[in-house]
């Protein structure tokens, strides 16, 4: 297994639309799922979409338990039903570190998906799991949660993260320079 690099907003690759997986049960898909789970747990985060690790296929890993004991894998997930009732939840994202803000979404959803071996299943979710599934499925469509916020907030977040990114690059350059 290996830790994967998580793309940071506003990286344009976060806006690519993922393609459905067509081959199940392969070594490649198993490794992708295992690496995504390891990366998600290490971060630590409650969900990760393949888009965030620059793999543009419809694969999501989620674990909303505190002790990281219930890994859920969704391949080619589709929302087949969403409640009219909405809930607002303070969302965060591994691609938007340090930023949390309220997003309104359906409170309950029913999702149909496949596991890595191609076995179909359905799950009905509420609470944090419902939030997480919808948030990760947005990633597969190239959408990051900050796009639900006002343009003013979004631009502020973009500027903050770009500034941090430049700082990290400068630090890396200085470290490299110091080794000379
Ligand atoms: Ni996210």
Describe what you observe in this structure.
- The protein is of the alpha+beta class.
- It has 3 helices and 7 strands; from the N terminus they run αβββββββαα.
- The chain has a 5-stranded antiparallel β-sheet with strand order 1-2-3-6-7. The chain has a two-stranded antiparallel ribbon with strand order 4-5.
- Strand 6 (109-114) and strand 7 (120-125) form a beta hairpin.
- The longest helix is centred in the last third of the chain and has 28 residues, at 151-178.
- It is globular, with a radius of gyration of 17 Å.
- The two termini are 33 Å apart.
- The model has no long low-confidence stretch (mean pLDDT 96).
- The structure holds nickel (II) ion.
**Strand order across the largest sheet:** 1-2-3-6-7
The coarse silhouette is globular
Run of helices and strands = HEEEEEEEHH
What does the largest sheet look like?
A: 5 strands, antiparallel
- In whole angstroms, the N-to-C terminal distance is 33 Å
The structure class reads alpha+beta
Number of strands: 7
The percent range for helix content is: 25-40%
């Amino acid at each position: 297994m290996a830790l994967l690099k998580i793309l940071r907003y506003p990286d344009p690759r976060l806006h690519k639309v993922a393609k459905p997986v067509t081959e199940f049960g392969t070594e490649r898909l198993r490794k992708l799922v295992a690496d995504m789970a390891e990366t998600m747990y290490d971060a630590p985060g409650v969900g990760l979409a393949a888009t965030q690790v620059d793999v543009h296929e419809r694969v999501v890993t989620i674990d909303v338990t505190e002790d990281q004991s219930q890994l859920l894998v969704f391949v080619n997930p589709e929302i087949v039903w969403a409640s009219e009732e909405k809930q607002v939840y303070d969302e965060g994202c591994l691609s938007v570190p340090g930023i949390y803000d309220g997003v309104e979404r359906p409170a309950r959803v029913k999702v149909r998906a496949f596991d890595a071996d191609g076995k179909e299943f359905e799950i009905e979710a509420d609470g944090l799991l419902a939030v997480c599934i919808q948030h990760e499925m947005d990633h597969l469509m190239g959408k990051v949660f900050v796009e639900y916020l006002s343009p003013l907030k979004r631009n502020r977040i973009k500027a903050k993260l770009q500034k941090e990114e430049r700082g990290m690059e400068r630090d890396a350059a200085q470290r490299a320079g110091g080794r000379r």
